[in-house]
Amino acid sequence: MDEIIRISLTVSHVMVPLLALIVLFRCVRSMLAGRADPETWGYLVSPEGTVQPLLHWECIIGRARSSDVQLNFRDIASVHAVLTRNDKGDWTVHNLSRKGGVFINDRRVEGTAPLFDGDTLRCSSHTLQFAANTELHRALQEQRRSVAGWRVAPGATLFFLTLIQILLVLEFSVSKQAEHIVPIALAFAGLILLEWLCYLLIRSMDRSGFEPETIAFFLCTLGLAICATATPGELTFQLILLLAGVVLFFLFGWWLRDLGRVKALRWPMAILALLLLAANLAIGSIIGGARNWIMIGGFSLQPSELIKVAFIYVGATTLDRMFRSKSILFFIAFSAVTVGGLALMGDMGAALVFFATFLVIAFMRSGSFATVLMAVTSAVMAGTLVLSVKPYVAQRFQTWGHVWEDVNGAGYQQTRALSAAASGGMFGQGAGNGWLKNIVAANTDMVWAMICEELGLIVAICAILAIVALAVFTVKNAARNRSSYYVIAGCAAVTTMMVQVALNVFGSLDILPFTGVTFPFVSRGGSSLLACWLLLSYIKAADTRRGGSFIVTTPNPEKEARR
After folding, report:
1. Gap between the Cα atoms of 528 and 301, Å rounded
2. What pLDDT is attached to residue 325?
3. What is the predicted pLDDT for the residue at 544?
4. Which stretches within 33-153 are classed as H helix?
5. 218-237 as b/e, with b when 16 or more CB fall inside 10 Å?
């Protein structure tokens, strides 16, 4: 009997990494497959007969090379006007020129004005005829776009993920004490049920793309395994948090469908974020050197995790507001207050994550490297000031690169993380068999090292590549997305996750200063898990494939023809 168990565990140690590679490969192959055909929402026709398609819901008209409709004339401003379309098909012109002006049917546009099919649009002295694309033509055009999940069946990928979860339960049944076996089995059974219900719900919504969700559930599987190892008594609570995260994912995705209501809640969202930040500064508890926790009824809340979602929500404004000075100044001020507040709390890891996200949003909104360079310079000066007044933060930077000089002091956590990660080898020691779980913050700040120790380097690298896959997928979709809001929000969301991964992994390995940042979906922490599922809504909204997104619907040509 013992020999059978030993052989079964050996097979499991090999199969889990192999299945992880299969799941990741299938998700990446499906997400990156297909054509990048753009959607055409209208046309601008010059007197000479030159036709310029409008490929987005917000299109810049100007002299700049980055303009969607380039008019390379001296009397045209770099950004002369912006055409915007709402989800009802109504077009609007926004006059952004300081000279020359914008005219519709020879009537000067002061601020904004509606634009209808057949109208004559004049920018300075240059005339263009506007033609709106018909819904029938658009529907027929979109039928040629690639369908999500058409090459790699998402159900089969989810089946391979289910096998990983069953094998992990098998490993835990041998490594854990008898009283924990049933709770662990029930927790993984609940996870399997939740992911399959989520898949069936997506299919019932006529959506065939399930790769981002599969990647999230793969990472949550690793997170549940870490919880089963370190704190098995919290498995039920962790599963409830996961369920709450999935529910928020669907609700927030539904909310993002309507850009009108998204923009309407922009100011309240900013106010809510600032109130959370102020509450944290006023009544927050200091844990691990950072005042980043609020205790409510025995439960701890980390506001900075939820502020991430609001920060992106506010920053990812649409093009009709991008070039307004008040809007830009408001976002810069909002960002400065947020990052500055996190720095004052001593949470330098969260401050770095927010600052990197700010840089991405600032560049995508302005297109100016000078603006980004100025922001970086200001951040270096502010960071130097914080290091001088926050000795705890300064100590982290002083320890960086010297952890082996004080293995029982300042380098205690990282030296143990390095040793545990190295002891796991390629295939790990088996779920529940590690010793790093006994070190403080092992299942949060050093969780990647725990994965290396118990599940092996292959699975740990797959966890990193899973986040990288989401980033590549979002950037790939950016060029052909309908609205700049979804582009900026999606890119900002993956930037947040990528920076968190870099700080968590490289901080544990002493390649970067140890900042105590969580690994998305994996690290223990309810606030972090909820925030990650909300961020995934932004990534899902940026999916431009047919049947892949909450936002992009699959039109019915016959229905449109009857209209």
Report:
1. 9
2. 54
3. 81
4. 135-142
5. bbbbbbbbbbbbbebebbee
What is the spatial distance between Cα 379 and Cα 318, in angstroms, rounded to a whole number? 26
Question: What is the DSSP code string of 384-433?
Answer: HHHHHH-HHHHHHHHHTT-GGGSTTTTTHHHHHHHHHHHHHTTT-S-TT-
If pLDDT is split at 50, 70 and 90, which confidence band does 394 have?
A: low
Q: What is the pTM of this model?
A: 0.86
Which tokens is 55 given? 């490929």
Contact 354, 308 (CB under 8 A): yes
pLDDT per position as a tens digit, 333-350: 777 777 777 766 666 677
> Phi-psi category of 105—alpha, beta or left, where left has phi over 0 and alpha has psi -120 to 50?
left
Phi-psi category of 400—alpha, beta or left, where left has phi over 0 and alpha has psi -120 to 50? beta
d(CA 338, CA 272): 12
Q: Tell me the torsion sign for CA atoms 305, 310, 314, 317.
A: positive
Element (H, E) at 62: strand 58-62
pLDDT digits (tens, 9 = 90+) for 43-57: 898 888 888 888 888
Q: How far apart are CA 179 and CA 35, in angstroms?
A: 52
End-to-end CA distance of the chain: 70
Give the three-state DSSP class for 127. Answer: strand
Widest distance between CA atoms in the chain? 89
**Other C-beta atoms within 10 Å of 124: how many?**
18
Note the pLDDT tens digit of each residue in 10-44.
778 889 999 999 999 999 999 887 665 667 888 89
- The token duo for 228 is 């089963």
Whether 169 and 228 have beta carbons less than 8 Å apart is answered as no
Read out DSSP for 351-382? HHHHHHHHHHHHHHHH--HHHHHHHHHHHHHH
Nearest Cα to 514, choosing from 503, 501, 502, 500?
503
Q: Which residue has the higher pLDDT, 105 or 10?
A: 105
DSSP state of 146: P
Kind of pairing between the strands at 102-104 and 112-115: unpaired
The pLDDT value recorded for residue 389 is 43
pLDDT digits (tens, 9 = 90+) for 284-299: 666 655 556 666 665 6
Residue 194 is predicted with a pLDDT of 96
Cα–Cα distance list, 428 to 194, 222, 452, 476 (Å): 27, 13, 6, 34
Check pLDDT > 90 for residue 494: yes
3-state secondary structure of 61: strand
Q: How far apart are CA 315 and CA 327, in angstroms?
A: 10
